[in-house]
Amino acid sequence: MSEHKHDLLVIGAGPAGYVAAIRAAQLGLDTGIVDKEEQLGGTCLRIGCIPSKALLESSHKYEDASKHFFSHGIEVSSVALNLKAMLKRKDKVVKTLTTGVAGLMKKNKVTVYHGSASFNSDKSVTIGGDTVKATNVLIATGSVPSTIPGINLADDLIDTSTEALSYDKVPEHLAVIGAGVIGLELGSVWRRLGSKVTVIEYLDRIMPGMDVELAKAAHKAFKAQGIEFMLGCAVQGVTSEKDGVTIDIKDAGPVKADRVLVSVGRKPNTEGLGLDKIGVTTNKRGQIEVGPRYKTNVDGVFAVGDVIPGPMLAHKAEEEGIACVEMIATGHGHIDYNTIPSIVYTHPEIASVGKSEEKLKGEGVDYKKGAFPFIANGRARANDNTEGWVKVLADAVSDRVLGVHIIGDSAGDLIAECATAMAFAASSEDIARACHAHPTLSEAVKEAALGVSGRAIHI
Fold first, then answer.
1. 438 tagged catalytic
2. What domains are there in the chain, each with its CATH number?
């Protein structure tokens, strides 16, 4: 057994962990990082954000070729799905990026350990045959899929998002439990490739927590695409049979499907870390409680990302990782939680930053609203992607932008301008006065900002 010493040891090589390790190394800290998987990048790169986006892109192209090329004057005699090739491309994308992360560790002279990490009572960490000591330890172990009573995730036909990324054939009928981001994205993938998709949600709406007007527009769009929704339905259990699954729903008839995707959220991944050995405090949801500088209740132990309270978003985790190590190394670091965007990578895309109308009303904030539809945008017309709109919410007195919500083509890219504007306390007038190139989809953001004061030009 060998022993190693670092200024900082990062546990978990996902977006929070590997980014934190790079920044720590840039700041001169002797840094080590450990992950139980051979491929670095965590859930996001290996079995989450990246592979799902690869499949969303491929399935979107397949549907376009099958149904929409004709309107552009492109005649295709026949379109065939090669699922094996599509999955192979997805895997290649993942391998390229995870190899890139490994290269970044080497470039920045970060020591990499592979294996399961567990704290010892003296705050050292055991990794296989190694004992690693560090002045500071950063926990960035991410999250794992949650489930609900009556569902056995070990069953072959009951899947999490991990399995739903690699089906060897298109299910005839895929049932999705949960109408959040993951369920809607993967449901969209398999619907495009030929599955009948039924989304079952406990609440009476999809995308809980998002702006209600945005969620309603998305619900309408997904229904038009052929996704079936069962809202306000409590799943009591899933029974696996030889030819499929039966989903038991309270006060409703059972739903039969070929497979079921359980997408009811995620929970902190802290099992096996030995947090009890050093006395790290967790809350009733299993999240590690931290102070404003990401410190746990144990001196020298920090935590960021999905293991602490807050939205489980890769980019939020990255910013926390950077802020945390900057605080450790320099005493200073910053993250603005009001300007963290949230995106659903369906078609149309859905993106939000800042507060929803419901949140502002609940807080008693007087606000003004400007909205602009993509159907009135020249580039959207040229692209034949006119679904959706941009909505800007601004303080009624100061005009400071409080929230922006977009549904439409490239919403996830358009929201970046809005997040940047909000980070600098911009007003809707600031966005409206900035010159936006023509013809671009970004002009819809400008027009919505103009709409706050009733000055939109093209409607």
1. yes
2. 2-145+267-335 (3.50.50.60), 158-264 (3.50.50.60), 339-451 (3.30.390.30)
